[in-house]
């Protein structure tokens, strides 16, 4: 009896779906369907990068991993997927040789009060020896990274100071969110540190202390291996971490860019 009911229910559902499809045949339903499909691919890509399913949070139009890394559901999956190049520690997908020369940052009006901190963060990345990676501020579109203020959710007892996206399709991660309220009482150096750290994600760096943080396995940047207590890319250190790029951070940047 139950089985029959189930069968009837399934038949009814199928009929409904068909009806829905027919109904929408004329309307432009392609885009949302593609988005759904792409979201599945993005989810698989995140898992292929080595992040356990338990660390992935579905947040509407994006997935959030390890509190501060964002994957838009409509992102372009890097050619070759996660690959085996996941290597101080990065995702394996870096900013292209042309785009790295000028990564344009647009400061949302909600973040202009921290322009000095943003400029300080940019100066650190731009000052890495033997690297041609350069960030610049632009005041109009087009731009590569939007940095904006947002009250970021966090589990009880935790504070999320910032979030950022990894590169995709040869472009830098397109979004940095800073929880201005959370860092407002920090020192200037620590506020700039949070911003500098998030830009580091935009150019593919993972957390140097991923293992201690209980995060998924990351691979070394070729030639720059191991843990580094001085790394600005150590995670979970908002208002307590390194405020300047360590020698290894610089070596890793030079190796990739
Ligand atoms: Zn981080």
Structure characteristics:
metallopeptidase activity, eight-stranded mixed β-sheet, 15% strand, 32% helix, disordered N terminus, alpha/beta, globular, Dual-action HEIGH metallo-peptidase, Collagenase (Catalytic Domain), binds zinc ion
* CATH homologous superfamily grouping: Collagenase (Catalytic Domain)
> Uncertain runs with pLDDT below 50, 5 residues or more?
1-6, 8-33, 83-87
Instruction: Tell me what portion of residues adopts beta-strand conformation.
Output: 5-15%
CATH class term: Alpha Beta
Organism: Pedobacter miscanthi
Protein name: Dual-action HEIGH metallo-peptidase
Keywords: Signal
GO molecular function: metallopeptidase activity
Write up what this structure looks like.
The chain has helices spanning 2-24, 30-48, 115-126, 180-183, 188-202, 247-256, and strands spanning 56-59, 62-65, 69-72, 89-90, 103-107, 135-138, 145-149, 162-165, 175-178, 219-220. Residues 1-6, 8-33 and 83-87 have low confidence and may be disordered. The longest helix is centred in the first third of the chain and has 23 residues, at 2-24. 32% of the residues lie in helices and 15% in strands. It is of the alpha/beta class. The structure holds zinc ion (ZN). Residues 68, 197, 201, 207, 235 line the site of zinc ion (ZN).
Quick description:
The chain is an alpha/beta fold and 257 residues long.
């Amino acid at each position: 009896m139950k089985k029959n009911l189930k069968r009837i229910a399934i038949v009814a559902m199928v009929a409904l779906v068909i009806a829905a499809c027919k109904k929408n045949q004329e309307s432009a339903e392609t885009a949302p369907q593609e988005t759904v499909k792409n979201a599945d691919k993005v989810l698989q890509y995140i898992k292929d990068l080595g992040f356990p399913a338990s660390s992935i949070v579905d947040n509407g139009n994006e997935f959030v991993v390890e509190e501060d890394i964002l994957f838009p559901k409509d992102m372009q999956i890097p050619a070759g997927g996660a690959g085996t190049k996941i290597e101080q520690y990065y995702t394996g997908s870096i900013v292209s040789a042309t785009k790295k020369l000028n990564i344009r940052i647009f400061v949302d009006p909600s973040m202009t009060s921290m322009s000095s901190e943003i400029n300080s963060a940019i100066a650190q990345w731009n000052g890495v020896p033997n690297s041609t990676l350069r960030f610049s501020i632009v005041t109009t579109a087009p731009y590569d990274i939007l940095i904006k203020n947002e009250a970021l959710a966090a589990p009880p007892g935790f504070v999320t100071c910032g979030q950022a996206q990894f590169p995709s399709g040869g472009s830098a991660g397109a979004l940095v969110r800073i929880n201005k309220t959370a860092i407002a009482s920090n020192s200037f150096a620590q506020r700039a540190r949070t911003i500098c750290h998030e830009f580091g994600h935009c150019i593919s760096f993972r957390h140097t202390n991923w293992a201690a943080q209980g995060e998924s396995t990351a691979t070394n940047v070729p030639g720059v291996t191991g843990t580094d207590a001085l790394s600005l890319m150590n995670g979970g250190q908002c208002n307590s971490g390194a405020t300047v790029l360590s020698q290894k951070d610089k070596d890793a940047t030079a190796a990739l860019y």
